[in-house]
Write a structure and sequence with these properties.
CATH class: Alpha Beta
Distance between the termini: 38 Å
Structural class: alpha/beta
Number of domains: 1
CATH superfamily: Vaccinia Virus protein VP39
CATH architecture: 3-Layer(aba) Sandwich
Number of strands: 7
Number of helices: 8
Strand content: 15-25%
Strand order of the largest sheet: 3-2-1-4-5-7-6
CATH topology: Rossmann fold
Order of helices and strands: HHHEHEHEHEHEHEE
Helix content: 25-40%
Radius of gyration: 16 Å
Length: about 210
């Protein structure tokens, strides 16, 4: 961790203990434990949820449930988050993590392919969405998610700077980076939305549906 990161984390709201435990367990027990949103991004997700005040939130890519709990923390009572995870081997861990939090009751977990599950939601049924699943599916997930967002609603897309690889020469077999580049180009030309890339953590794109 750089000194500037240490400074930032010491001058923002503390990471809740339950999230600290979930993050630590993911890093210790899972090969890709660094996929959790973490302290800084987690506090941002909670804050922006409080700003937007959505009634219904959609998340694609639950992983261990860290980011879902951050959104849930920012939701007012009576609001709900639908989160989708394709890896059924993570289900027990996710449900256990949700059960540890006082905000877990605001979350509805769906296990399966996001494209199949999204088809069951009516159009304009969500106020906010967070895309953080397989990078090679970003364009598909975006196109299927956009109709589900109300006019004036928001989409957040994670990892859009992809470890800085978006400005480097891409290796021929680096499909994830190519997918991120394709998504960023597609979004830049999309006049259905307004968009801004925030250099937060690994790049977070904030999109508003016109």
């Amino acid at each position: 961790m750089s000194k500037i990161e240490e400074y930032i984390l010491s001058h923002i709201d503390a990471e809740p203990e339950v999230l600290k435990k979930i993050d630590r367990d993911a890093h210790m027990k899972l090969l890709q434990g660094n996929m959790t949103s973490g302290h800084l991004q987690g506090r941002f997700l909670k804050m922006i949820t409080q700003m937007i005040r959505p009634k219904r939130v959609l998340e694609i890519g639950t992983f261990v449930g860290y980011s879902a709990l951050c959104f849930a923390e920012g939701l007012v009572e009576g609001s709900e988050l639908h989160t989708i995870e394709i890896d059924d081997e993570l289900e027990d861990r996710i449900r256990d993590n949700f059960a540890q939090s006082e905000h877990g009751n605001k979350i509805i977990l769906h296990i399966g392919d996001a494209l199949d599950i999204l088809s069951g939601f009516p159009d304009e049924s969500f106020d906010l969405a967070f895309l953080d699943a397989d990078k090679e599916d970003y364009c598909l997930h975006y196109e299927d998610t956009l109709p589900k967002i109300r006019k004036g609603g928001f989409i957040l897309v994670d990892n859009t700077l992809w470890y800085g690889k978006v400005i480097e020469e891409v290796k021929s077999n680096d499909w994830a980076t190519r997918a991120i580049l394709d998504f960023n180009r597609k979004l830049a030309d999309d006049d259905r939305v307004e968009k801004v890339i925030l250099p937060l953590r690994d790049g977070l794109t904030l999109i508003r549906k016109k």
